[in-house]
Design goal:
Helices cover 4% and strands 36% of the residues.
Length: 646
């Protein structure tokens, strides 16, 4: 078919219009129906000829042609106050024109530039400092997240817990376990637009029964350490050389438990280490292993230094560290002497070990009998996770004796048991020095006169005895104070303690002389005797509330928060799954001591086993017995129902 000239001309005029196309518009960011926090909208516009681009009617800046992609343009428009975008379902329309005609494209998205807010409260125990040290085994976390944009859902991540935190839509309220040592806890909240906020806590958990880092004199000093590798009792022949080095004992056959020496390897015994430390002026540390160290070198007449034979005399500040209370044992049964004798003003620290079998030297005159069957101290004493067992003394203090007003003793997670004094203080005797026991047990000790467990002799100055989470059980004295005997000016502060099965002619639990007294709170006075407190003592007990007494001779003026003539229903003495092995009396089901304490005086936050109590801190703050309601903590040293994890 032949085309007419006019038809061909018309076709030529129309064809360019058919070949040409309006500008192509692709909106790259944000993608349709997405969330964004960017204040820029990006679009790619491809066209020919002269190109003009507007976004929501605002002229957009158009980049020059990309030499690698001709006729391709990238347009940006800021979100300005002149063109605010509604944060809900915002719409951007892009218009582009060129020589071929106009085009239009639009995108709908949610704009969010609001950073989420994390509100975290660390309670039970309450923690406000982001870098905190605590003894708690678990921690209750209460928190919430908020965002000014209601359309932006939140994603919360928490790192650092042995048990993960489980957030909900409204936040979280959960108890989580803390590992020993550092717990870096990181809270991160991210919304759908990518806005992120982070809060960091560093919670360090310390185990009070396993803490080897208490300082002696200088917290920043690095003590000289002696590693003991032999369990026999050889002395150091040259203790002044600063080196713990022993030689074979040629007095008899070698010990089959200790191999022969192999020169030039040096070997170190406990006695030799103490001899060397005594001649070193700085702080010293002796490291013992998992073994039984038997002391056998009886006192030799003429031992000028006093540390080559007999008991272990300590004349310089010293820390002795074992591998565990049941693993490291210093045995003095074959010595016929006490284990340690600490000189005036000398600071001794014992950690994670047991000592036992010591006895005071036989006196030539019974009136000159010495005290401290296993340990006599005339300086500051700290014992952590230590047992003192089966000691005997002709004088005061079957196991321990503090004999100087400048001395003091702090025993934590200690067990003092099966020790005897022919006079006072079957376990511990104190003459004018303060004494603190925490998370400890005094059991099966006896005194020939007063104070089956503890006897304290006071003076003109006030003297403090502090007991926290202490179990005093099955101690006896022939005269008074089956558990405690307090002398003049002695004030005992007792909180969350348990007294049970102590026996004395008068005052199975407590006896006092002159103005000695006891401030008792949240405790169980469970001795069965009808004379639990010595009737010859002036009114010795001041109740601070939360006490349960089987008798009525101690709490003669009970508060509204005390129970008298009530059986506390104590179970037998046992470790009760305690990681520190401290024995306690658990409460039987139905005991009125359960959830009874803490109304008037705050409970100890952890019980004797280093486990937090079931309802601590209390829900009513400050405490008000008229409005308070249970449950609170249990009276006594052990919390029967501990705080459960979710």
């Amino acid at each position: 078919m032949r085309l007419r000239p006019c038809a061909l001309l018309l076709l030529l005029l129309i064809c360019p219009a058919i070949a040409a196309a309006n500008p192509a518009i692709t909106i790259d960011s944000p993608a349709s129906h997405s969330f964004t926090k960017s204040d820029l909208v990006k679009a790619t516009v491809t066209g020919t000829g002269t190109l003009a681009v507007t976004m929501n009617g605002v002229t957009a800046a158009v980049d020059p042609n990309d030499p690698n992609h001709p006729n391709t343009f990238l347009a940006h428009v800021p979100l300005t106050t002149q063109d605010p975008l509604d944060p809900n379902n915002s719409t951007v329309t892009v218009d582009a024109t060129d020589d071929d005609g106009p085009s239009s494209a639009s995108v709908t998205f949610t704009f969010d530039d609001q950073v989420p807010v994390i509100d975290v409260q660390l309670v039970s125990p309450p923690i406000t400092d982001p870098n905190t040290t605590t003894g708690f085994a678990s921690l209750r976390i209460v928190g919430s997240m908020s965002d000014n944009d209601p359309n932006a859902s939140r994603v919360v991540r928490v790192r650092g817990f042995s048990r993960p935190l489980v957030p909900s839509a409204s936040g979280f309220d959960q108890r989580v376990e803390l590992a020993r040592g550092g717990n870096p806890i990181v809270f991160t909240a991210t919304d759908r637009a990518g806005n992120t906020v982070t809060r960091v806590f560093q919670i360090t958990r310390t185990i009070v029964c396993q803490d080897p880092n208490f300082p002696i004199s200088d917290p920043n000093a690095i003590p000289t350490t002696y590693f003991v590798d032999r369990t026999d009792d050889l002395p150091d022949p040259i203790p002044d050389d600063g080196i713990c080095d022993v030689r074979p004992d040629l007095r008899g056959d070698p010990d089959p438990n200790n191999p022969p020496f192999t020169p030039p390897i040096r070997h170190c015994t406990l006695r030799a280490a103490i001899q060397t430390a005594n001649r070193h002026s700085g702080d010293d540390k002796i490291q013992l292993g998992n073994a039984v160290y038997v002391l056998t070198r009886e006192r030799v007449a003429g031992d000028a230094e006093g540390d080559a034979s007999g008991d272990l005399d300590i004349t310089e500040n010293l820390r002795i560290v074992g591998a565990g209370r049941d693993s490291t044992i210093i045995d003095a049964r074959k010595l016929g002497d006490r284990v340690f004798d600490v000189a005036d003003g000398v600071h001794l620290q014992l950690l994670s070990l047991s000592i036992g079998g010591g006895r005071t030297p036989k006196p030539a005159d019974p009136n000159d009998a010495e005290g401290g069957g296993c340990l006599r101290s005339r300086g500051p004493l700290q014992a952590n996770n230590v047992a003192v067992l089966s000691c005997k003394s002709d004088g005061p203090g079957g196991a321990l004796s503090l004999e100087d007003p400048n001395a003091s003793a702090t025993l934590t997670c200690a067990v003092v048991a099966r020790s005897q004094s022919k006079t006072d203080g079957g376990a511990i005797a104190v003459d004018g020095a303060p004494l603190t026991l925490r998370n400890s047990a005094l059991s099966l000790n006896s005194a020939g006169r007063r104070g089956g467990a503890v006897s304290m002799i006071g003076g003109e100055d006030p003297l403090a005895l502090v007991l926290k989470n202490v179990t005093v059980s099955q101690n006896k004295s022939k005269l008074a104070g089956g558990a405690l005997d307090l002398g003049a000016s002695v004030t005992a502060t007792i909180n969350n303690c348990t007294f049970a099965n102590n026996v004395a002619k008068a005052g199975a639990t407590l006896s006092t002389t002159n103005d000695g007294n006891a401030l008792i709170s949240n405790s169980i006075l469970g001795d069965k005797s009808k004379l639990a407190c010595d009737p010859n003592s002036p009114e010795p007990v001041v109740s601070m509330g939360g006490n349960v007494e089987r008798d009525e001779t101690c709490l003669v003026s009970p508060t509204a928060d005390d129970l008298v003539n009530v059986d506390p229903k104590l179970d037998k003495l046992a470790t009760n799954n305690a990681s520190n092995g401290t024995p306690t009396h658990a409460l039987k089901l139905g005991s009125l001591a359960i959830d009874f304490a803490g109304r008037q005086t705050p409970c100890e936050p952890l019980d004797a086993r280093d486990v937090e109590r079931g309802d601590f801190p209390r829900t009513d703050n400050p405490p008000d017995s008229s409005t308070a309601s249970p449950p609170f903590c249990d009276s006594g040293a052990l919390e029967l129902f501990v705080q459960p994890l979710p």
